[in-house]
Amino acid sequence: MFRYIKQAIKKMRRQYIRNRVRRNLPKAAPSVAEAILPLDADTYTITPNQLKGMIDENKRFILLDVREQWEYEIVHIEGATLIPLGELPRRFREITHGIEIVVYCHWGMRSLDAAFLLQQLGFKSVKSLVGGIDQWAQEIDTQLRQY
User: Fold this and answer.
1) In the chain, where the domains are located
2) Can you give the pTM of this predicted structure?
3) What percent of the chain has pLDDT over 70?
């Protein structure tokens, strides 16, 4: 039995070396910062408390939900506009230029992608909600349903 295991390990090692020589494998994985977005997190993110302050001050901004329709139907922040991330490249014209945009999703990853995309499309003031609606429900509106 050990002979079969040794043979399998040798075969995997040979295949790994072959792929490495052919450059089929990356030499190193990107860092978390590189893998997600080339954005300065402090400049392009907003905390749930900061968003709550904007709402309380009646500040003019667009609250953009980039989750899927079924997620939006489960729970959403009042006043949010739904444009799923996959539809954003063709529907971005529905968003008014010149107004601050706060983007949120479930946990905050898709909204970072959306914020980066909107920046690339020429929107100047775009922020992603840290922790998404999940963190919002934990810290601000504890009555919201979590999923």
Assistant:
1) 32-139
2) 0.73
3) 79
